[in-house]
Amino acid sequence: MSVLEVLAILAAGVAAGTINTVVGSGTLITFPVLLAFGFVPVTANVSNTLGLAPGALTGAYGYRRELEGQWQRALRLAVASVVGAIIGAVLLLELPASAFKAVVPVFIALALILILIQPRLSRFLTARAVRAERERRTGGPGLFSGVFATGVYGGYFGAAQGILLLAILSIGLDDTLQRVNGIKNLLAGLANLVAGIVFAFAAPHVDWTAAGLLAAGSITGGLIGARYGRQLPPELLRGLIVAVGIVAIIRLL
């Protein structure tokens, strides 16, 4: 691996860690970078999941104040996210690589659509958050099922997992958007961690150098995202994510 590749993967990890903490979709930065350097899709995905897990947990730690007073419901939802992530990781390992290569462009395209409609989605979620001080809910079976499904998706691929989680949690819980984002970071971090553990022990596809570089970068990015990420210009961030997502789709096709 050349010096340029090392620096690029490290920088992608920082960017992804920051983006994942703020909203989600950091995989749309790191996955195309790994593809650009010649990693096959399954190896890129497995190494990416392992590398971004530490950053996701760092971001969750950065939001620990927002998690105060809601650990009971967070732990309940964590069960759904973890079980889903295990199933998704097993599906990735058991299904043929051709299936992953065929379905990933569709996943990325859907993730890009979510990125593009995010301003409208954010306005909707903010409108719901106005009612937060009047009512609190732990969420019913529908929310639990939605988090489980997102966990399966996160274990299998995970691009825009954070955006999906933020939407599902904000619809299912009456609380402030920042407190919901704290739960989102925790659930996404656990899903990545559990899937990463499965891959570490069972996957023959891990590139540990790439995973290590992404981990170092994502930890830094998680800290940056928790402290400064909300100040990033949303238009610039959205444009960058869409651009690299399109590059990934073109390369996969």
* Helix and strand pattern: HHHHHHHHHHHH
Structural class: mainly alpha
Percent helix: over 70%
Write down how many β-strands occur, each being a DSSP E stretch of 2 or more residues. Answer: 0
Given as residue ranges, the uncertain stretches (5+ residues, pLDDT < 50) are 131-136
Shape: globular
Alpha carbon gap, first and last residue: 25 Å
Report strand %: under 5%
- Describe the largest sheet: none
Helix tally? Answer: 12
Quick overview of this protein structure:
The chain is mainly α and 253 residues long. The chain has helices at residues 3-22, 27-36, 41-62, 64-67, 71-94, 97-116, 118-129, 141-156, 161-172, 177-202, 208-228, 234-252.
How would you describe this protein?
- It is globular, with a radius of gyration of 17 Å.
- It has helices at about 5-20, 25-35, 40-60, 65, 70-95, 95-115, 120-130, 140-155, 160-170, 175-200, 210-230, 235-250.
- The chain has one domain.
- It has about 250 residues and is mostly helical.
Name its key features:
253 residues; mainly alpha; 81% helix
